[in-house]
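Re: export button greyed out
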Amino acid sequence: MAIPRLLVVDDDGEMREMLVTFLQRNGFIALPAASEAEILAVLSQTRVDLILLDVMLGCENGVQICARLRAERDLPIVLVSALSADQHQMAGYEVGADDYVAKPFNPEILLARIRAVLRRGRRSPSLGYRRTAAVWRFAGWTYDGKRDEVTSPSGYQVPLSGRESRLLKVLLANPHVPLTREEIAAALDVTGEGEAAPEAQGRAIDVLVGRLRSKIEANPRQPQMLRTERAVGYVFGVDVERMDA
Amino acid sequence: MAIPRLLVVDDDGEMREMLVTFLQRNGFIALPAASEAEILAVLSQTRVDLILLDVMLGCENGVQICARLRAERDLPIVLVSALSADQHQMAGYEVGADDYVAKPFNPEILLARIRAVLRRGRRSPSLGYRRTAAVWRFAGWTYDGKRDEVTSPSGYQVPLSGRESRLLKVLLANPHVPLTREEIAAALDVTGEGEAAPEAQGRAIDVLVGRLRSKIEANPRQPQMLRTERAVGYVFGVDVERMDA
DNA sequence: GCACGTCTGTTACAGTGCGTTACAATGAAC
DNA sequence: GTTCATTGTAACGCACTGTAACAGACGTGC
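Workaround output, generated via the alternate export path:
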């Protein structure tokens, strides 16, 4: 995996800075955030592999934030809290936290637990789509993630190849977020362990994008959904609705 | 996922029984084991989704066992220990444990942590199916593992050859889990003791899969259940219900 | 406006993976 | 020995996917 990118969420500026520098010094990329709004802002702009979330965020409630994040994305979340009581821990786990670390904590232990969570989740990368097959709707289209098939607004069914389907899943899981070719390639090549060179990908992604466009864009020459972000990558610029089965 | 199958490893019989019954009462399948040998015996015979491993196993060392298991299989492991000191925790995480629970623990918290690890969704590559013959149901079909016979939703009975039947057992024991040809071949060739050569298999599995498809797929050209995972292997993509006799 | 370099879209082509068929080898039943 | 079912091997063709090459689009500087 590339260097893991952590989002450190704490409303206490001092604590936040301390954590960020500590994590950076230990080989992570650490991004700070102080509120739910900041979390969403960061997530909409960049890749994040794990969120380290303080439960006590002033007037906001970390557990509720965790629940909302979990409902939308499949991001690993580690809760940090001064509340070590069992019922608080339970609340955290119930909303889908991956680990719950009570303050005060040994920094080395925190590192180890973060690494354990990342290790566990390395098969569902940051751009990862949830494994549960689902049906998605976007701009009149329907995508059946189980059958690898899209249905156009007019009802025409088009089968996707395995790779086209995975690409579409990655895009649907990250609407309005510009994705670089490297990120897309990494998300597509979830081999479980072997980390391929994150380097030169050739034009494989471009060609793949072109093939997907030819199937889901009315006019592939002027794509409306799968748009190019020049010198960056690609964006799926359409609202997406997920319909869990 | 099917009901998660946990392997509870503790040399203290009382503690082991308590854990097993507690976990079973909470919706898990819990299998007991008291030593590394027993762990390996169970793993060779059945699917296990997570191992709950006590660190103090009489003369054996849980951390070392954890390291060895981790080296061979990609199974989630939760360590349980009376040693809560930081250096012991670190040792556990370093050998690849997914979580470390210190005794005494709140049972509810233990449940929550087990669920959190399972949620991160590593699938067990231990493909073994139980030897006990049984009847399975999937997508309207019925499979009688004792008579090597499947019955279609419409009631049509189809006999399977020995190898087709074993293949189906392996698949049924691992629904929704992509299996490589090597894994399938290894699971088929389990003679009960000796490990067969995990080497080059030619196209034997492909042909076998094709033959099974021709018997259980309505349209073998577009398989709905026994699907291909390109460059990976095969998946049985249907929910399976096991009806023990 | 024009020239130039960079980035992107498209096409053709080659390599790989997979499904299918035919055939050979094996073994059990008679 | 004969027959039949079972199982592996070989070969062919198709679908999928990455690479290479070229042409067009875009941006920058003049």
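The first strand of chain A starts at residue 5 and ends at 9. The button fix ships in the next patch.
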